[in-house]
Amino acid sequence: MLLIHQIPPTPAYLRVKICRHLTCIGAVTIKNSVYALPHDDETQEDLQWVLREIVKGGGDASIVEARFVEGLSDERVIGLFQSAREADYRELAEQVRAASASFPRRGAITDARRPELAKQLARLRQRAGELAAIDFFGAPGREVVEGLLSGMEARVRTVEGSEPAKASLDRSEYRGRTWVTRTGIKVDRMASAWLIRKFVRLTITTALLLIAAPAASRAAPTKQALDTAQLEQLTGAKGQLDEKEGVFKVSVPRTDLQLTAAGVKIPPSMGLTSWAAFQGTPGHAMVMGDLVLAQDQVNPVMSVALDSGLDVTALHNHFFWESPRIMFMHIGGMGDQKALAAAIGKVFAKMRETAGGKGETPSAQIDPGQSSLDASKIDAALGVKGKVDQGVYKVEIGRTTRMEGAQVGTKMGVNTWAAFAGSNDQAVVDGDFAMLESELQPVLKALRGARIDVVAIHQHMTGEQPRIMFLHYWGVGAVQDLARGLRAALDRTATRVGAR
Fold first, then answer.
1. How far does Cα 327 stand from its chain's mean position?
2. In principle, which of 272, 313, 413, 429 could form an S-S bond with 268, CB 3.0–4.6 Å?
3. Helical packing angle, 74-102 and 142-160, nearest 10°
4. HEC string of 249-313?
């Protein structure tokens, strides 16, 4: 099951609340704002609760059943779940070791201390149970935790001289009964029904009916029907409806580009067509697209897309040896279909406006070997000191993630860096920006707001947790303006740098 969401920037607590709950139910990040869980009745119920909370908070969300995820094998998806749980088990194992080390030696315990130790053990055992419940694919580390907890329990028995007290429950006494609750149930009542179903083993049908009954009068959200005529009118492009998938796709062939690649003439049918595909989802619509752009069109079109409420999700090349140089920009969005279509229309209009060499191409006559810029202006803006090498002043700011159970950071390439050259009045900066998926759109908006060009958006790794996105940039202008623009982008992330 996939949860695809778009959470508004305010209220700020909503994003934190949703992220915490997704972590608690064992969901992993697959792509930008896309979370996955194995499909069963319980995980579907969990995701539906999250969806309702997002929508109630003013956001958009959809739940879909996916047979596969493009670009990810089944083994890789399973690896994401295992890696997340392995890290959880490792953290819990350290907590158990620390707690065990604090236990008194045999004979040194007092009656006053026993309840405290029993409570500590119960808390750790509870956490182990929570992890086991979301360990869908048997992650490494569970056996280690169980062994440590068993050893700790054995020490408690030795200290207390008896088995720890356990609550007894004859489940047969609770089966076959009718369980009722009030209308307008909230999370406490929902949790009670889950516990009844899990531990008393009521039939799933009965438990779900009791939960769902008070809400039966509320209509389930229906897919938003696509108004294809309106989509064509607002986008300014002709489209086709795929009735099987319920997708309406508008296309803009780039017949104006006389493109060749390695001597081969490339017509629009060989991948030289911009497109946007619309799909109705419960309560709103979704759009995804791919734009074929000359280099000088990329950033003007990107600014329009961002300003119109669309996400820019990738920027890269599809060809080698082509002339002229062509880039492909992937976009997406969720919301009202009329607003999405209007946004796509503005993007297509900007493409027409900037075609034929009418876009933006920065230029500067700079020799790094003759640089005279004042590095202290960069330090003051970024809050980080750099180093000079062959006339280039370079600053590096690290991030961390985990791959295959190991932490990787700055020296393994998980970093943001900026290289400055030129003078105080006319400088150039190029670099690489590392950020979480959730930080990509704010960083793009900050860079474009500072008139710094984005030249690539992609990933450098696969299977890391959390997932790290990278973008490459290029800017020309006064050195202080460039540094301040980068700092504005850094401030949109969780990266910690010094005060300005």
1. 24
2. 272
3. 20
4. EEEEECCCCCEEECCEEECHHHCCEEEEEEEEEECEEEEEEEEEEEHHHHHHHHHHHHHCCCEEE
Q: What is the dihedral of CA 159, 164, 165, 170, to 10 degrees?
A: -160
CA pair distance 318, 14, nearest whole angstrom: 38
Strands of the 264-266 sheet, one edge to the other: 264-266, 259-261, 322-323
Q: What 3-state DSSP class applies to 134?
A: coil
2-64 belongs to CATH 3.30.70: yes
In 3D space, the residue among 18, 8, 12, 30 whose CA is nearest the CA of residue 74 turns out to be 30
Residue 436: both structure tokens together: 């979480």
Each residue's pLDDT, cut to its tens digit, for the chain (500 residues) gives: 888 888 887 787 888 888 888 988 999 988 778 899 998 878 888 888 888 888 888 888 888 877 767 667 777 888 888 889 999 998 898 888 888 777 665 555 556 666 777 788 888 888 888 898 899 888 888 888 888 888 777 766 654 444 444 444 555 555 556 666 655 555 555 556 656 655 554 444 433 333 343 333 344 455 668 999 999 999 999 999 999 999 999 999 999 999 999 999 999 999 999 999 999 987 789 999 999 999 999 999 999 999 999 999 999 999 999 999 999 999 999 988 999 999 999 999 999 999 999 999 999 999 999 999 999 999 999 999 999 999 999 999 999 888 888 899 999 999 999 999 999 999 999 999 999 988 999 999 999 999 999 999 999 999 888 889 999 999 999 999 999 999 999 998 887 776 55
Instruction: Give the Cα separation of 193 and 228 in Å (integer).
Output: 44
CATH topology assigned to domain 228-354: Alpha-Beta Plaits (3.30.70)
Return the beta strands (E) in 81-231 as ranges: none
Residue 479 CA to residue 375 CA, distance in Å, equals 9
Which distant-in-sequence residues (6+ apart) come within 8 Å of 9 by Cβ?
Answer: none
Rounded distance, CA 329 to CA 141, Å? Answer: 41
Dihedral sign for Cα 200, 202, 206, 207, please.
positive
- Three-class SS state of 239: strand
Which is nearest to 314 in space by CA: 300, 332, 296? 332
CA 94 vs. chain centroid, Å, equals 28
Peptide bond into 11 cis (omega under 30): yes
Q: Environment class of residue 360 by beta-carbon count within 10 Å: exposed (0-12), middle (13-18) or buried (19+)?
A: middle
Q: Where do we find the tokens 């979480």? A: 436
